[in-house]
Structures are given as structure tokens and as C-alpha cells.
Design goal:
The complex is a heterodimer of chains A (460) and B (214). Chain A has 460 residues and is an alpha/beta fold. In chain A, α10 links the parallel β15 and β16. Chain B is built from 9 helices and 5 strands. Classes of the chains: A alpha/beta (460), B alpha/beta (214). At the A-B interface, α2 of A face α4, α5 and α7 of B.
């Protein structure tokens, strides 16, 4: 590590004091200035960027943005600055691959090239959504884990402990909830015949995240812990607590940061640049080993609007071409539509195709963007879809991805604000056999055949 | 177009273009020309805020620009109000907004705060991870009309209910309207826990706030 974590902590206490609002405005101005300087222009007619030169400029602008602005620590109201030499060394010292999981379930998560042949690691499961009971969480998670196109699994949320105690964030009940959840996940992957499968999770607080770890019944050093950077280019001490624990315990970190179109990143061009800068923060400040390069849109409750696909995809491409980092895309992880609808599958496919083709893995799980309090709002079939699309898109060209994504956008982009809600696990699955209903399986097969016809090469 | 209309139109344009120096200069010209200062509020400022909101909604303006416009609107309004008799200064309706305890998500809440402000509300943004008692005390201190509560996590939604329950137990429920928002929050949930309103996005929150205070 070129820039020790202790030095980051030191800078978080001694860095320049800046008012948060001023930092946000500086981010906007700088991001817009850099998009002009580097000639970065979003063309809605080209949601998949097939021009590597543009992605290279997004990368250069993102690095410059991070070096110029630094990371804002909201706890200390100070800016953590990193020098160009330090950042370069951090990038150079990172491994090009990490190994995750145990035994036969161990996988190698390597740097992926744009259009590259490297395996795309898929971590699925119903991510951070509520489950009605411990039994239901176990059943659904087992279903997700037993699919061979899935390499790892996320956990969700129990609304009550032992069926009666409410779970509230920031309270001790949260520690019990997350602990219980990870124990259920571990039992589920064992029951699925994949005891060493990767588990990834993140709780809203660092203390609850730390409580997930137990080599016997919880998360292990061979799993991966998520550390998050707040939007945009910010951290709290609670975020840095996770890094401190991961370094002390010896678990690898997956970093997640999203730029916001319409937010302080500004336009899609600014978001692409800020998404790259966010990865630089996750690398240099938060010490992650793999990085989510993401973009959300303040006006859309989905992660696959045309502009989001372009911003995140171009950012990923820039990172993949210019730094041999291990990138996570996961763009299709949160569709607007719900499970059991064709729109869910179209949205997810568009995001996962872009993620994979641009050079990333997808580790963000599956979940309708807004689930509210509705429990069991997902099934193992969405995990299979994520796995099948990501693995099937390996080796696809950007030009082919562009054709497919435009086809998919035509199918869903006018329905993002009024997307079909879909159905819950109970309605979509035979709970005893753990099989989709014939109707849901038919819908799945139809969409799969449709995309196969268009050139997506599913493995089976 | 007469001189008065020209000045008022120029002020509106300067605000929309976030040209602070020009907006303040034109405001002074309006005052010096003896134009009724209330026209600057009812025409230039109001229409500028509406245009900015529309542009944001269709992706032509961004959050940072809304923040800058909000600052500028405050400055221009301040100049105008100095020249109005005290009884003619229209008091802005007051909103206290916070992300509830245990939740550090700020993007959506910030957006709602900025859009509410540009829509003419006096907004007190308390930040994230704010305890019920702190929110209620602030609402009392600033004599808020509305308390707006954001939550992005299923496990922090109970803290929205806690604020409503605390208001009731303190005998304050009737003093404040409460509106909810946030990724997992739905109108059904808002109704279920006894909130007065729900905003599915920033502009919906503005409409809801206006409706509640009509």
C-alpha cells in the first residue's frame, strides 16, 4: 500500500477545512470544466460507447477531478487530498486478480478487459430487501445459491427477529438482525451444496458490518466486504471504520460509489467523470481491491436509463483500458420493474450486458429499485438471469452490445417512471419444489430466446 | 414592452442564468425606478423559480445550479423586502427537513430541500441521521409549518413513525404537517403511520407541501 491507511486518517484530521456546500459546488464546477477540457460529449443516440478514445478521456478527467478535489470527510469537515504520485503507485500496486470463496466454490476475480474473455464473476441474491421470516430468507437464498451461473450471494433484511422483535437501524437490534441474516445465508449456501461460496454484505453501520464476521457461521476472510463511499466523493468515519476493520481482520474489500446524474455531478458527462473519480477514492482512501463504477439518476428510480448506461459504461471502459483494476459494474442490479415481468428482464439485461462488455464483473445482487416494506420481493430466477446474461455477454463486442442495448431500451425506457410492479416470491414460485411457476418460467424462456435470437450467446 | 416590464423580465432572466451580479444590480434599478417591489417578487422571482424547476425536471439544470439559484433568490428577495413595509412582507412557509436517525443517505433529501427552497419555502435542512427529538425541537424553534422526513432504508423507516408518534405524545401533532419520502417509502406506508403527505420525488414533495398548506 503506497499510501498507508494511517496517513489517510491523519489527512482526515489535518486536511483543509471546507464547508460541505462549497465542496459540492466545487465538484459541480470542476466536473463540468473537465468535460469541456477533455471534449467529453454524451450522445443519446449512442448509449454504448464504442469509441475507446472517449472512454480514455473520461478516465483522464476522472483522475484529474479526484486529484484536484480530494475526498470530503463529512465527519471532520476536511478534505483528504492524494497526490498524483501516490495515486499512480496505489494503482500499480493493486493485484490484477483476487481469489474469493473456499474449496470448490473458490473463484478468481481478475481484471477484465473491454470485450475481454475473462470470466465475469456474478454475485447475486436478493440484495438488501426485506424477508418476511427466517425460513423465507433461507429458502430464497438457497434457491439463488444453487444456480451454477451464480458465484456469490448477497443477503437481505429481516423485519423482525425471532418473528417478534422489530429491527431498527443504528440500534442494537440491527446487530442481531445482520448477524442472524448472515448465519441464515451461510446455512443456505451449505444447503445449496456450495459451502465455500462467496458471501458479500454491508450493513448500514460499521458496527453491524463487523458483527457479520465469524469464520464458522458468518462471513469469512475468504468472502468480500463492501465499503461504500457517499455520493459524491465523500466518506464518513463510519465508512472508514469498515476499512479499518477489513485491514485489521484481513478481508478483501469491494468498494461502491455512485455518481448522480442531476446531482452535483451535473450532466451524464459529469457523472461519467465523477464515477471514475469515485473509484480513485475507493482505491486510495478506502483501500478497496475491487471497485463499483456506478451512476444513478436523481430523476429515475432505476439504474438503467439511457444516460446511466452511458455514464457508468463509459466510466468502466475508461478504467478497464487505462488501469488494470478489478471493476464491478452491476448496472442492471436495480430495475424499475418488479420480478415476474418482461421489463425487469429487459432492464437487467441491458445493464449487465454493458457492465460485462465494458470490462467489469457484476456483484451487486438483484432487486427491484423500490421494494418498500413488501417482503420477499424477489426470486432465484432473477439471480439466474443476472448470471446467464453476464456470463453470456463475455467476449461480446461493444458494437454488438450497442445493437442489443438499443433494442432493449426501446422495450423499456418509456416505462421507467411507471414500471410494472411485478410479484413476490409467493406468487412466482412453487415454494416446496423451489421452482418457478410455469407462467414465470415461460416468460423467462421467451425473453431468453428473444435475446439469443439477437446474438446473446447464453452458455446453455 | 415598457421600462418596468423590461427590468422585471431582465431580473427573471438574470436569475435563471444565475448571474448574481446582474440580478442584484437590476433589483437595485427596480427599487430606484420606484417600481412596486412586490412585482419583483410576484413576477420575476416567482417565474424564475418556476422556470428553474422545470429545467431541472427535464434535465437541463442540475442540483448545484438549484443551490446557486436558491442562494440568489434569497439575496434578491432580501434586497426587495428591505423596501417593503413590514406588513407587506409575505412570510415564507417554513419546512424542516431531515434524513431520520440511523440513515446517512443525503442525495435525495438534499434534492428535495433545494427544490422546496427554489419553490419559495424557507427550508431548514438538518442533514442526515437526525434524532426525532432534535427534529421536533428544531420545528418548534423555527415555527415550522411542515416536517419533511427522508429514509432510504427499510430499517430506518420506523424512525419516521417515531417522529409522528413523538409529536402526538408531546401534544404537538396538530402544529405540524408531516410529509415523508425516500426510496423504500410509499404513500400507503405514509398513510399507515399517520403522515399527512408523501412525495415520490422532489417535485411531488413541492406539490404535496403546497397542497397541505393551501
Amino acid at each position: 500500500m503506497a499510501l498507508p491507511f494511517w496517513e489517510i486518517l491523519h489527512r482526515s484530521k489535518d486536511g483543509p477545512i471546507v464547508e460541505e456546500k462549497q465542496y459540492d459546488l466545487n465538484l459541480f464546477k470542476k466536473a463540468q470544466q473537465l468535460t469541456k477540457k477533455y471534449g467529453i460529449k454524451y450522445d443519446p443516440a449512442k448509449p454504448v460507447d464504442v469509441d475507446g478514445d472517449l472512454a480514455d478521456r473520461v478516465y483522464q478527467a476522472g483522475v484529474e477531478l479526484f486529484l484536484d478535489l480530494g475526498t470530503y470527510c463529512t465527519t471532520t469537515k476536511r478534505v483528504i487530498k492524494v497526490s498524483e504520485a501516490e495515486l499512480k503507485e496505489e494503482i500499480q500496486l493493486l493485484p490484477e486478480a483476487i481469489e474469493l470463496g473456499q474449496g470448490p466454490d473458490r473463484v478468481r476475480m481478475a481484471h477484465r478487459e473491454v470485450e475481454g474473455p475473462q470470466d465475469a464473476i456474478v454475485i447475486a441474491g436478493i440484495q438488501t430487501a426485506p424477508f418476511s421470516s427466517e425460513e423465507m430468507m433461507f429458502t430464497i437464498s438457497k434457491g439463488c445459491a444453487q444456480d451454477r451461473c451464480v458465484d456469490g450471494i448477497w443477503g437481505g433484511i429481516l423485519l423482525k427477529i425471532d418473528g417478534k422483535y422489530d429491527v431498527v437501524a443504528g440500534a442494537p437490534s440491527e446487530i442481531f438482525q445482520y448477524r442472524k441474516m448472515v448465519e441464515i445465508l451461510r446455512r443456505a449456501v451449505i444447503a445449496a451444496g456450495r459451502p465455500g461460496m462467496i458471501i458479500v454484505n454491508n450493513a448500514p453501520t460499521s458496527i453491524a458490518t463487523i458483527a457479520l464476521f465469524d469464520e464458522e457461521v458468518g462471513m469469512r476472510r475468504s468472502d468480500i466486504m463492501e465499503v461504500t463511499g457517499m455520493s459524491e466523493l465523500k466518506v464518513t468515519y463510519d465508512d472508514l471504520n469498515r476499512t479499518a476493520f477489513a485491514l485489521a481482520y484481513g478481508v478483501k474489500m469491494h468498494g461502491a460509489h455512485s455518481a448522480t446524474i442531476g446531482g452535483f455531478s451535473g450532466n451524464p458527462e459529469g457523472a461519467a467523470v465523477t464515477a471514475v473519480a469515485g473509484c480513485m477514492q475507493l482505491l486510495a482512501v478506502q483501500k478497496a481491491e475491487c471497485f463499483r463504477c456506478g451512476a444513478t439518476d436523481s430523476r429515475v428510480k432505476s439504474r438503467v436509463s439511457r444516460a446511466q448506461l452511458w455514464a457508468a459504461g463509459t466510466g468502466i471502459q475508461g478504467l478497464s483500458r487505462n488501469a488494470k483494476l478489478i471493476i464491478d459494474g452491476s448496472i442492471g442490479d436495480h430495475p424499475a420493474a418488479g420480478p415476474g415481468t418482461k421489463q425487469y428482464m429487459y432492464e437487467a439485461a441491458a445493464g449487465f450486458i454493458v457492465s460485462t462488455v465494458m470490462g467489469s464483473h457484476s456483484t451487486g445482487g438483484t432487486r427491484k429499485y423500490v421494494v418498500g416494506e413488501v417482503p420477499n420481493y424477489g426470486t432465484p430466477l432473477e439471480s439466474r438471469w443476472m448470471g446467464e446474461v453476464c456470463k453470456g455477454a463475455v467476449g461480446m463486442s461493444r458494437a454488438q452490445a450497442h445493437v442489443l442495448v438499443k433494442y432493449l431500451l426501446d422495450k423499456y425506457e418509456n416505462n421507467l417512471k411507471d414500471a410494472p410492479a411485478g410479484q413476490t416470491f409467493e406468487a412466482l414460485y412453487d415454494q416446496e419444489k423451489l421452482d418457478p411457476t410455469p407462467e414465470y418460467q415461460r416468460l423467462y424462456d421467451e425473453v431468453k430466446a428473444e435475446l439469443r435470437e439477437l446474438g446473446l450467446q447464453f452458455r446453455n | 414592452m415598457g421600462h418596468e416590464e423590461e427590468l422585471l423580465e431582465s431580473l427573471k432572466t438574470a436569475i435563471v442564468e444565475i448571474d448574481a451580479d446582474r440580478a442584484k444590480d437590476i433589483t437595485q434599478q427596480i427599487i430606484a425606478a420606484g417600481i412596486d417591489p412586490r412585482r419583483a417578487i410576484t413576477f420575476s422571482i416567482k417565474e424564475a423559480a418556476e422556470i428553474v424547476g422545470q429545467r431541472f425536471d427535464c434535465g437541463e439544470m442540475f442540483l448545484a445550479e438549484l443551490v446557486m439559484v436558491g442562494d440568489l433568490l434569497d439575496e434578491v428577495s432580501g434586497i426587495v423586502e428591505k423596501h417593503l413595509p413590514a406588513d407587506q412582507v409575505v412570510k415564507k412557509r417554513v419546512i424542516v427537513i431531515a434524513t431520520v436517525q440511523g440513515d446517512v443517505h443525503s442525495v435525495g433529501k438534499n434534492l428535495v430541500a433545494v427544490v422546496l427552497r427554489s419553490a419559495g419555502f424557507e427550508v431548514h435542512d438538518m442533514g442526515v441521521d437526525v434524532a426525532s427529538a432534535t427534529i421536533i425541537q428544531k420545528a418548534k424553534d423555527v415555527k415550522a409549518d411542515i416536517i419533511a422526513l427522508s429514509s432510504l432504508l427499510t430499517t430506518t423507516m420506523p424512525y419516521q413513525k417515531e417522529v409522528i408518534d413523538d409529536l402526538a405524545s408531546m401534544g404537538l401533532r396538530g402544529q405540524f404537517k408531516v410529509i415523508l419520502g425516500g426510496g423504500p417509502v410509499t404513500r400507503d406506508y405514509a398513510v399507515k403511520i399517520g403522515a399527512d403527505g408523501y412525495g415520490k420525488d422532489a417535485f411531488d414533495a413541492v406539490d404535496e407541501a403546497k397542497k397541505l398548506l393551501a
